[in-house]
Amino acid sequence: MKTEIKPYNPFNHLLTEADMGEYLTQAFMDDDPAVFVTALGYVAKHKGIAQLADETGLNRESLYKALSGKTQPKWDTVQRIIKALKVRVSLAA
């Protein structure tokens, strides 16, 4: 019997906006930028890639590729995704 392994999506367990915000904050603080991009991808999938594609003007394939963590998306792509997800980013000294 073959067991199928499915990708783990932490947002199946993190349901509040505060949890999502904390998750993205911790991912952003990681030294590896791919960690934040991957975390942003999980948030995007939780919200819905089709809806995100409509709101960003990017096609779904491009979103999946940009948010895979295997590539380094352009800043304007990340910014469009962040705005469409209604995530507020702040920096502090």
Please tell me about this protein's structure.
By secondary structure, this protein is mainly alpha-helical. It has one domain (17-84). It has five helices and no strands. The chain has helices spanning 17-29, 33-47, 49-56, 60-66, 75-84. α1 runs antiparallel to α2 (33-47). The chain is globular and about 55 Å long. The protein starts with 16 loop residues before the first helix and ends in a 9-residue tail after the last helix.
Question: Beta fraction of the residues?
Answer: under 5%
Q: CA-to-CA gap between the ends?
A: 55 Å
**Structural class estimated from helices and strands:** mainly alpha
Give the biggest beta sheet. none
Give Rg in angstroms. 14 Å
Number of domains: 1
Helix count, per DSSP? 5
| Count of distinct strands | 0
Q: What is the N-to-C succession of helices and strands?
A: HHHHH
What are the segments in which pLDDT stays under 50 over at least 5 consecutive residues? none
Query: What share of residues is helical?
Result: 55-70%
- Overall shape: globular
- Average pLDDT value? 85
Topology:
Elements: H1 17-29, H2 33-47, H3 49-56, H4 60-66, H5 75-84
